[in-house]
Design goal:
single chain; alpha/beta; two-stranded antiparallel ribbon; 13 strands; 29% helix; globular; Rossmann-like_a/b/a_fold
Length: 201
């Protein structure tokens, strides 16, 4: 089995951002792994620990995104893939860039944050599922694998429901699904030696 967490690097919410020429200047900002994506990384690790297989982190963004990928590797992910892109890309463009990589990886499932902190967008999970031609479950709060299917609990406008989908599928993650672990010192040291494959877009 293979569990893939898709991640992005975003400005820390506590950072002071500057506007230069009508654009946000990130040169002095503290950049972190998107906190919503951390739930996807943690869930991939838990699924691997329970079912075996491999946990892979796939990051999208400029060269500096490698820092966020290394954070996920320090948490315990086995290896990383970095789709390198300099500049702004909307969720559909990100999904189109990631689709060939994800198809090549052929994961059992894909996890990504339910909402991107910098875009304030909830579209990436659905765009990924559309690009891959697989089902999507948004705002997942519980996830169980059962053979070639998964049972997932997800939030609705009023309440929640359990659904069953055939794998492979995409699941968007949120607070309540799990409690992400912190990277340990041994994990940080191991992450420095783990593979990150670069793919240009």
């Amino acid at each position: 089995m293979k569990f893939v967490a898709v991640i992005r690097q975003v400005p820390d919410g506590e950072s002071r951002l500057k506007i230069q020429g009508g654009r946000v200047d990130l040169s002095g900002a503290t950049l972190i792994l998107d906190q919503m994506d951390e739930y996807g990384v943690e869930e991939a690790l838990r699924l691997k620990e329970k079912h075996g297989g491999e946990a892979v982190v796939v990051g999208f963004g400029p060269e500096r995104t490698e820092e966020a990928i290394r954070t996920a590797l320090a948490m315990g992910m086995d290896r990383g893939v970095h789709v390198v892109f300099e500049g702004y890309a909307d969720p559909v463009t990100v999904a189109e860039a990631l689709a060939p990589v994800l198809k090549e990886e052929a994961p059992t499932l894909v996890l990504t944050g339910g909402q991107q902190a910098d875009w304030d967008s909830q579209a990436l999970g659905a765009a990924l599922a559309e690009a891959l031609g697989v089902p999507v479950v948004a705002w997942t709060t519980a996830l169980e694998l059962e053979g070639e299917t998964a049972r997932a609990k997800h939030d609705l406008d009023e309440g929640a429901e359990w659904v069953r989908v055939r794998l492979p599928a995409v699941f968007t993650t949120q607070q309540g699904l799990n409690e992400p672990r912190y990277p340990t010192l041994p994990g940080i040291m191991k992450a420095k030696k783990k593979e990150i494959r670069k793919v240009a877009f």
